[in-house]
Design a protein that fits this description.
Alpha-Beta Plaits, 5-stranded mixed beta sheet, 670 residues, alpha/beta, 25 helices, 8-stranded mixed barrel, Nucleotide_cyclase, 3 domains, TIM Barrel
Length: 670
């Protein structure tokens, strides 16, 4: 066969091997560079196309030139420098156009065909321009069949190269792409050389230049490899840069930038992974107590420093943690291998470690953490584990902070019921689904009802009558107590104004309401809307509410007294009892807690407190009221001690209807 004879007989195999080496290396590098251009956009893609064109065009030209140097003809050979230079420019420009079309994303199939066709035709054009630069001292003839066949053998593998390079980035087919380009270059060259025949002219002899071609071939190969090596270096540098960028992006995606801890996403992946592997582990949720006050007092920079220091102490305390993550502003999480008993011990150690003061810059910051933990065995899925640990954290914070709490069966159900209760409470507040019951307050000396305490009642359509000790704390915790308190004030003043008597109405005000700037507006609005005289409204507050913000409470109470509203201290003796409160605050009444009234007949200490408070009230001009009166003996004792008023089931139970009549034992028991 003519092509095989041309390859074996008419070429120096040393040159052929050098050309094949250049072709193989160049094709592999070209495939990699072309794939990189497919992964980029804009100017970067143009840069990669240019680099691919330079590398591929040089590899094609060097392969052709070395093989041409190895072509053995019995005549003198020279090269036209202009056409030789033009052939390499054709190779670079043509392949660049082909690669640019081949990466088209709008019409990929058309791009593959046209781009691959241009690539193959550029190889053809480069070869035949180079052949015109090949000047021989002899008669040259061309075989049209082999010329046509060379074009086909160049174009079809080139199209296959573009298709495979676009479709496959790794594996066997990825290497097949480079093989197709090798086939296109080699097939074109040796088929085209089979079409080229030289007949020696008698009288002309070989000038002996063939031996010098070896040095030229090695030099051209070296230059070609340098050019291709430049492409390889660019690829490797970009690959390292991309790897570094991907690592940075991965770190940003899975780590908190402030503390360097993992983030919520990484934590979630860790939980899912441990569930999938069915490993024994626990989740600890760590909340920094009173973190907002640290920011407000020392500034956000100190707050950030505190979080970093806490993260460091966690690592020092639990160096073998599976994952330590920051999942919120002041909330962290720890995944810990092993049984729940170990997690409980670690949680206690963390609470103790975080109780030690932190030195943040020039500030000494005292802080603490609350921890809720749940073991893998308590939850059926990652979401359930997170919810259960969160429920345990809520219990830890509700129990006083600075402590750890483990999830126990039934807590999640209780938390879910609390959420449903909160939603229903909010709906009841929006629809006004509350009622006010009134319990009489009886004057001891006259035996008549001088006022009523307004007590809010919630009759839920599904639950029935919900006890106040269930929904009042919930309303205080979520802030709804402010609006609920406004409703009670408005309704109580409206009802009291309709009684047509001089009886007052007493309304309880919580610590949350006292801290609200809307309280005074609610009181003034309720009085104005109802037309109730201010002296017929009595505001009741507990000692605990006073201590929570004594300075602000003092201003609020002074404002209420200025309006003419009366003020009573409720449950006196059960909170942070201080005689300074009686001295400094503008009080009209002291309500002695039911615990002293009920036990005074059997407990000398309770009796002593009861006697002391009533005497103190007389001496400083503050009326006293005994709560929780349920027996005639208790009522007689209060009367003997000089208590001005009493309240309790003996005197009257809370009722939705107000009865204007003197108290009798029969009525009180009704």
């Amino acid at each position: 066969m003519r092509i095989i004879d041309c390859l074996v007989v008419e070429h120096d195999l040393t040159f052929v091997l050098l050309a094949a080496l250049m072709c193989l290396v160049g094709s592999i590098v070209t495939a990699s560079l072309f794939r990189r251009s497919l992964q980029t956009d804009g100017l970067r893609s143009h840069g990669w196309i240019f680099l691919t064109a330079v590398c591929s065009g040089s590899a094609i030209w060097v392969t052709h030139f070395i093989a041409m140097l190895g072509y053995q003809v019995p005549v003198a050979v020279t090269f036209d420098p202009v056409l030789t230079l033009g052939s390499i420019l054709v190779a670079i420009g043509g392949t660049g156009a082909g690669f640019a079309m081949g990466r088209s994303r709008h019409r990929p199939r058309t791009g593959i065909v046209i781009g691959g066709g241009l690539l193959g035709l550029s190889i053809v054009a480069m070869h035949y321009v180079g052949m015109f630069a090949y000047r021989v001292e002899g008669l040259v003839t061309w075989d049209g069949f082999y010329i046509g066949l060379s074009v086909v053998l160049a174009v079809l593998p080139a199209i296959a190269f573009v298709a495979l390079a676009r479709r496959w980035r790794e594996g066997l087919w990825a290497h097949a792409a480079a093989g197709c380009l090798v086939l296109s270059i080699v097939g074109l060259h040796f088929t085209a050389m089979a079409a080229f025949q030289v007949t020696r002219i008698s009288g002309l002899a070989d000038d002996g230049t063939h031996s010098a071609f070896r040095a030229i071939a090695l030099a051209v190969l070296l230059v070609g490899l340098i050019i291709v090596g430049t492409g390889v270096s660019s690829f490797l540098i970009d690959d390292r840069t991309r790897a570094d960028s991907n690592e940075k992006l991965r770190r940003m995606a899975f780590h908190d930038p402030l503390t360097g801890l993992s983030n919520r996403r990484a934590l979630q992946d860790g939980i899912v992974g441990n569930f999938s592997a069915d490993l024994s582990f626990s989740l600890l949720l760590v909340d920094v107590d009173r973190f907002k006050s640290v920011n407000d007092t020392f500034g956000h920079a100190t707050g950030d420093g505190l979080l970093v220091s806490i993260a460091e102490r966690i690592h020092a305390t639990v160096p073998d943690a599976l994952c330590v993550a920051r999942i919120g502003g002041d909330e962290l999480a720890i995944l810990l291998a092993g049984e729940e008993a170990r997690a409980e011990g670690v949680a206690r150690a963390l609470v103790a470690a975080m109780a030690e003061p932190f030195l943040i810059g020039d500030h000494v910051v005292a802080s603490s953490v609350s921890i809720g933990l749940c073991g893998r065995t308590e939850a059926s899925d990652p979401e359930g584990l997170m919810q259960m640990a969160d429920v345990a954290l809520y219990e830890a914070k509700r129990g006083g902070r600075g402590r750890a709490f483990s999830y126990r069966p039934g807590m999640a159900e209780a938390a879910a019921e609390a959420r449903r209760l909160e939603a229903d409470l909010r709906l009841a507040l929006e629809t006004g689904n509350f009622q006010i019951a009134y319990q009489p307050i009886v004057a001891m000396d006259e035996g008549r009802t001088i006022g009523f305490e307004a007590l809010v009642r919630w009759n839920d359509p599904e639950r029935g009558l919900v006890p106040p000790d269930r929904f009042i704390p919930l309303a205080e915790a979520n802030g709804m107590i402010v609006d609920l308190g406004a409703f009670v004030l408005s309704r109580a003043c409206k009802d009291a104004a309709a009684w047509g008597t001089d009886q007052f109405v007493a309304v309880n005000v919580s610590a949350v309401q006292l801290s609200s700037p809307r309280l005074m507006a609610h009181v003034v609005g309720a009085l104005a809307a109802s037309g109730l005289p201010a002296h017929r409204l009595e505001i009741e507050l507990t000692e605990t509410a006073i201590v929570a913000n004594a300075a602000q409470v003092g201003h609020v109470l002074a404002g209420l007294r200025t309006l003419g509203v009366r003020v009573a201290m409720d449950d006196f003796g059960t909170g942070y009892s201080s005689l300074a409160h009686l001295r400094d605050l503008p009080l009209d009444r002291i309500k002695i807690d039911r615990s002293f009234v009920s036990s005074a007949s059997t407990d000398p200490n309770s009796l002593a407190v009861l006697r002391a408070v009533t005497q103190l009230g007389r001496d400083i001009g503050i009326e006293t009221l005994g709560e929780g009166v349920e027996t005639q003996e208790q009522l007689a004792l209060l009367r003997d001690l000089g208590c001005r008023a009493a309240q309790g089931y003996l005197l009257g139970r809370p009722d939705f209807e107000v009865r204007d009549a003197a108290w009798t034992p029969e009525r009180g028991a009704a």
